[in-house]
Amino acid sequence: MAGGFVEPFDTWADMHHLVSQERVDGAATVAYFCNVLADSQAPLRGEADEWLKAQQEHLHQQALRFLSRDIASLWPKGTNPLTRELYWNLLVDPSGGKDEARLDAQFLRVNVEPSERYVLSVPGSSAYRIVPDDTDFANLYAVGDWTACTINAGCVEAAVISGMVAANGIFRSVGADTKQQPIIGRSGP
Fold this sequence. Notes:
Layout: E1 2-3, E2 11-14, H1 19-22, E3 31-34, H2 48-69, H3 156-173
Antiparallel strand pairs: 1-2, 2-3
């Protein structure tokens, strides 16, 4: 995984281990490019479908620009040395599209629904995070990078720690204290 690259896709993850899971004939690797989408004005009532289509088109144009201009730094052998543009035939397209039309066969996703937007860790908000193993409800555990789990930031590490805190809480609740696992950065299991 590489982060801190150029906008609009500053994070790249080489996910070649997912080729067998993605099941795309002809795929040699899988690459994820992502970033935070800049906020835009919410759609007017009744215009959500058009707005969503415009957001998706905006993403498509950003991806097209990225693969035409910026990808060469990451994939120098997959790009034209003079133009720095991606060799479009490297993209799998079962329909046989040509050149940049092959981008249409790729999975592009724009998260704009409120439930898809990311939870921030702004100053003063940590006090409102739920403790994974102390929700005030019997037999209810909260897990995710949005919980109070040592790392109050959105990342896979926080999600894993949150899951470990909840698992340790479950072990305690069933009297299996010896099965608790130590968590780096936390005192005690």
